[in-house]
Amino acid sequence: MKLICTLSAAAMMCVSTLLSGCMKWEHGEGVHDFDVEEGLLIACEGNFQYGNATLSYYDPATRTVENEVFLRANGMKLGDVAQSVTLDPDGKRAWIVVNNSHVVFAIDTHTFVERGRITGLPSPRYMHIVSLTKAYITQLWSNSIIIVNPSNYTTTGAITVPGMTVQTGSTEQMIGLNGYVYVACWSYQNRLLRIDPETDRITATLEVAPQPRSMVVDYQGRIWLLCDGSYPGQTDAAHLQCVDPEKMEVVSDYQFDMSSTPSSLRVDPTRRRLYWIDGDVWEMSVDETVLPVMPTIGSRGTLYYSLYVSPVSGDLYLADAIDYQQPGIVYRYSAEGELIDEFYVGVNPSSFGWIGVAK
Fold this sequence. Notes:
Shape: globular
Order of helices and strands: HEEEHEEEEEEEEEEEEEEEEEEEEEEEE
């Protein structure tokens, strides 16, 4: 089943009318002075309208985890549905997009203390840093990409996507490549956009398979898109597509069977191997000509929800949502598929960022 809305699969199972998506953030007294150098930041969505999104930190060297680091550092909760994590190019700040609270927090990556916030966003999904004074924020149920100034946490404009309505509009993950920003249009959409950040104009549009959601760049500078597939009124299988970003054309197309629901496309540090979740964890060389037939890591009865590959070691971090309501588990595997560690985090771990590596 494909979910076409601002909620994730986890959120859809936990809709409640008891709480509002609106929150007020007032700093309390922090109960912990963090001072970290390197490791994994994990955003846990929580449940829609429960306001129980959290941040966790994992130190791979000591194999220790710290949960609720935002609350413990700032004396306040994060909000409702932590959607994504983005790091500044210098690695000093992490940006946490909190979708249903309509806010993006900037936190210090070493102390987790808030440095600023961008508020009043309709339905934020992902953030991409263009420069010290410009960033883009994509949205769901909107036909525009918000332009912000990360130096002073203000909204400065918007990019309207042609041919996209507010009712079915969606822009999702972004990639910076060769001086452009590429944007996948996800829910009810089937386009890849190319934006010139000098002018904030869409300079090219490519029609791809339905619902491109996650994407990576390989060692040849090609963009790989993982497309969900069908949405209401349209029937198609999920696709993995390779795009030439200069020509803006699909150069390879791999179709999954109709029962497949692949997600969370990632690439290893060499940018030669792709990983994704489809019940199990699958792996494929970017030079391969067919989809794999055997998974790299089996599901073991788990509910794999998201995937991340360390940019340093190539280790795989695999999040298990369990039942979408209790604290999730993150499994750490080597690139060879050997289980190294496992640890509990918050509810519905979904997004990751690596502290200590300039992007």
